Structure formats: C-alpha cells, structure tokens
C-alpha cells in the first residue's frame, strides 16, 4: 500500500504558510517524523516554528492539552500556537520549534552521556499530577481518558469496528499476508498480561523514542510529538525505547536507577512483554496494510521468539 502519508510537499507547505500567515516565511524544510504525518520546520522574523499536517486534529488538540497542563509541572513540551484545517483532507498545527537536534542523531557514546538527563525527565513524567481527571486511554480535550479500564483501552485498538485509518482492517486477514491465527494467538497473550499493569494511571507519551527527543548535546531540550499521549502503564514508553534502540537497554536502566532509590516496578517483566506484544501486533497489521512483507516477517519472528 502506498500513500499512507499526507500529500504535502515542501513547496505546497510553503505556499500554505504564506497564505495562512499572510507574511513571508523562509527556510521551509521537511522533517522525517512518523509514518502517517508530514512535518516541516520554517522561520519567520528570526524565530523558528514547526508545522505538522495530518488527516485529523484530535492529536493536535491532545498536544495542546499536554503542554498547557504538564509543562508548568516541568515537562519540556513545545507550545502549540495554532490548530486548523489546511484543506478538506488535512488538518495542521503550528508549534514553537525546540532548540537542538534529535538525540538519535548523535553517536551512541554521546547518547549514553545524555541518557541520565532523559531518565530524570522520564521520572518526572511519571510523577506529574493528573488532577481530577479520570479514565484510561487517549487524553480527551476535557483531560479525561477514553476508557474505564486499561485492558479495555488496549482491546479497543483491535476491535473489528474501527473508523479512520483502521476502518475495515479485518479485510487484511483475507486480502494481505496478515495471518489470523498468529495474530489472535499473540493478541490473546497480550491481553492476559495486561492484567499485571497497576490500577494507578500514568501519563504515557505513546511514541517515546529518541527521534522525538531533542538535546543540545548535554541535556534534553524538549520532548515532542505528543499526539498519541494517553493514560495508562508507563512501561509502554519503555517498550518503545527498547524497540527503537535495544542496544541501549533503557528499560533495564530505568529499573536499576529506580531500584537504587528504593522504588520497585512490580511485575516489570510481564508488563514489558505485554507492551512489546502490543507494539508488535499493531506493527503486524500496519506492515500488512503497507504491503511491506520484509518488515512484517521480521516483526513476526521477534514476537514469536518473545512468547516461545
């Protein structure tokens, strides 16, 4: 499958900005970010900004809530300045550009020197006050989660009836190489393991990898792309880190650092396995929809090793 990302090139993005802002912009550049979005940086009056295009606005509203609620508590989240509709197919958001480079762009030796500061920010994420909000899952404009329980939120991703990107996704079992028996087995194990997660809710980034974190080479200057933020088990963010950079062993780093402070992570292994299965099962259907058989087979092999 092709065309998952929005149809927006640099010239079109610049033209939209000139028209929307009614002021000249310079240095419009694409940023590689995500599989289903288009992102560009640009300058205006010696200030730098980010414009993000996506088919829906829900994630942009979520990012604004995260900034407004949690940046006063110390989270380095960029401020969302504008949310709107670019055309009948695309929505957009404009945010302040965080200084620095992505952590993943640094050599591994330098990344390891930055990790202690990142771990401090991760600890802060897990200690922010959620206020009077309730529920698990996607953060809504009210601040409440979308589901009454954590397992129900996880199950909601894979129900047959879906809207948007995953509408009619069950046809992948018949129209692509997505194997129903493999999928259902892995999904069943994931749901069994979900019962090990705590009742306490945490703020979860949802796409917590080093490409979404910026640094000046010494400290973390910002954590970006909060469109998928939700309430739930923070170990899911550690699973994302492990999938992107397994050589850094970030889940074990966090576990050891917290243990040295007398803070245990109950059922750590079960929760991490649940999170890895969740990410992997979602990846199976994504790569099936995308038509990427090599990526599908690679993820499938890793998941089967995880459970066998």
From TrEMBL:
Domain of life: Bacteria
Stretches assigned to the Aminoglycoside phosphotransferase domain: 29-249
Pfam families membership: APH
InterPro entries xref list: AGP_Transferase, Aminoglycoside_PTrfase, Kinase-like_dom_sf
Record protein name field: Phosphotransferase
């Amino acid at each position: 499958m092709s065309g998952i990302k929005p149809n927006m090139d640099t010239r079109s993005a610049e033209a939209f900005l000139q028209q929307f802002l009614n002021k000249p912009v310079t240095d419009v550049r694409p940023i590689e970010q995500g599989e289903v979005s288009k992102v560009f940086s640009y300058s205006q009056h010696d200030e730098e900004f980010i414009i993000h295009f996506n088919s829906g606005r829900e994630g942009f509203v979520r990012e604004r809530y995260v900034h407004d609620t949690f940046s006063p508590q110390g989270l380095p989240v960029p401020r969302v300045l504008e949310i709107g509709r670019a055309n009948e197919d695309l929505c957009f958001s404009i945010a302040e550009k965080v200084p620095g480079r992505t952590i993943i762009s640094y050599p591994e030796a330098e990344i390891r020197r930055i990790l202690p500061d990142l771990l401090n920010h991760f600890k802060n994420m897990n200690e922010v006050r959620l206020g009077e909000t309730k529920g698990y899952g996607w953060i809504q404009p009210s601040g409440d989660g979308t589901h009454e329980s954590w397992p129900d939120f996880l199950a909601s991703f894979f129900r047959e009836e879906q809207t948007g990107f995953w509408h009619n996704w069950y046809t992948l079992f018949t129209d692509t190489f997505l194997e129903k028996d493999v999928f259902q087995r892995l999904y069943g194990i994931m749901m069994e393991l979900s019962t090990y997660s705590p009742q306490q809710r945490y703020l979860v980034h949802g796409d917590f990898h080093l490409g979404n974190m910026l640094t000046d080479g010494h400290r973390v200057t910002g954590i970006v792309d909060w469109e998928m933020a939700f309430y739930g088990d923070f170990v899911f963010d550690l699973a994302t880190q492990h999938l992107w950079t397994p050589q850094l062993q970030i889940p074990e780093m966090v576990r050891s650092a917290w243990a040295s402070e007398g803070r245990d992570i109950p059922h750590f292994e079960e929760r991490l396995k649940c999170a890895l299965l969740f990410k992997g099962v979602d990846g199976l259907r994504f790569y099936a929809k995308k038509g990427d058989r090599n990526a599908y087979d690679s993820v499938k092999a890793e998941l089967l090793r995880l459970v066998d």
